[in-house]
Amino acid sequence: MEPLITLLVVSGVTLAANAMWFHRDRGLELALRAGLCALFLLTGTVHFVGMRAELIDMVPSRLPFAGLLVTVSGILELAGALGMLASRLVPWAGLGLSTLLVAVFPANAVWALSEPNLPWWDELLPRTVIQMVYLAATLTLVRLTSPRRTRPEGPVDGPCAEPDRSEATGRPPPPRRS
């Protein structure tokens, strides 16, 4: 529950601060970047300090090298968090974190189904909803920060341009569409 609270509070404070003082156009983008950075700094850190043994226990037994998997996923979470700080890396970090969220979900589900006496937020349904909130945040950020692909205005030159056949047919070329 702490990671969700972190995401919501940091994103909310950043969004409010932007609205009250900075008035930047990209308020939602900045809020999601800050919230996701804080979220994945928190979750990435606990892969090494505090909850490492619990995270290793969460890895399904059919997967080898549980400790290595926890280490790698922690490094990827920390790298994704740091990627939120560099504008050029944000779409890639968001895409990587989205992929990571999907990849680790089965371990979360197995753990939620196999552990007795979990707090309500760690049971399968709430955990799934929380994971979907994280995924929605990362994918929204990818959408907000990905370069837009637009058609250029005016005639298209280059290898994809249609050849001018007016010389061969004696007729003027068709008008260009805009």
Cα Rg: 23 Å
Secondary-structure class: mainly alpha
Element pattern in H and E: HHHHHHH
First-last Cα distance: 52 Å
Strand content: under 5%
What portion of residues is helical?
Answer: 55-70%
**Which spans have pLDDT < 50 for at least 5 consecutive residues?**
none
Kindly describe this structure:
It comes from Streptomyces griseus subsp. griseus (strain JCM 4626 / CBS 651.72 / NBRC 13350 / KCC S-0626 / ISP 5235). The chain is mainly alpha-helical. It has one domain (about 1-145). It has helices at about 1-20, 25-45, 50-60, 65-85, 90-115, 125-145, 165-170.
Task: Record keyword descriptors for this entry.
65% helix, 7 helices, mainly alpha, single chain, 0% strand, globular, 178 residues
Short description:
By secondary structure, this protein is mainly α. Helices cover 65% and strands 0% of the residues.
